[in-house]
Amino acid sequence: MNKNFPILSILVAITLFAAAYGALVVQAQPAEAVPEAAAYEAVLGKSLSDQAVADFIASNDCASTGPFQMCNASGLALWIGQSQNVETVYLYPNKIGDFGAYKGTLPFGLSASDTMANVEHKLGHPKFDQGGPQAGWEPGVPDEAGTPDRLHYWATYKRFGVTIVYNSPSATDQDATIHAILVRK
Questions:
Q1: DSSP state for residue 12 in the 8-state scheme
Q2: For the chain, what is the domain count?
Q3: Are 169 and 147 in contact (CB under 8 A)?
């Protein structure tokens, strides 16, 4: 048995060396590039003839459908107004139909998993007392609201230029999550 011990030790050493060297080779390979999210802020309010807008549309493989540029893979759509400017950006934070999930940063600290209660808190108002500001935050009631498509509740916050479209038609469903976010210039 003592004769086999040096051979066994050498085999173990070679195995450990191969495992360690293999791990270094795997670590040394570059990581796959994660595609950058489309920066909608760069085109909002700009003309279709603007080079930044043309580049955005081309790089996001957008397709024209009436007044919309549909950028399905990027999880957004651009609404082009009569003045041929990008007036509204529709962001889809979750995969919906043909739209992938928007991977960029959502406005005002919103996240794809926010409920109506979270959104109202994030878009709220500072709480004021008679003598001055009091610590706290009051839920933000939208300036306008409705259910124009009978499937989704739409809450418009004019002061922020944003409309939140929820996945529920009810204005009282505090657990409803975000279906889409419309950002206007």
A1: H
A2: 2
A3: yes
Going by pLDDT thresholds of 50, 70 and 90, the confidence category of residue 136 is: low
- The answer to whether the beta carbons of residues 171 and 153 sit under 8 Å apart is yes
Considering the domain boundaries, does residue 115 fall inside one? yes
Sequence-ordered list of residues with C-beta below 8 angstroms from that of 160, at least 6 positions apart, any chain:
107, 108, 123
Residues 5, 46: one domain? no
Residues 24, 115: one domain?
A: no
Residue 1: exposure state from Cβ atoms within 10 A (0-12, 13-18, ≥19): exposed
| Helix runs in the chain, H state only | 4-28, 51-59, 116-122
pLDDT beyond 50 at 86: yes
Task: Provide CB contacts within 8 A for 65, sequence distance 6+.
Answer: none
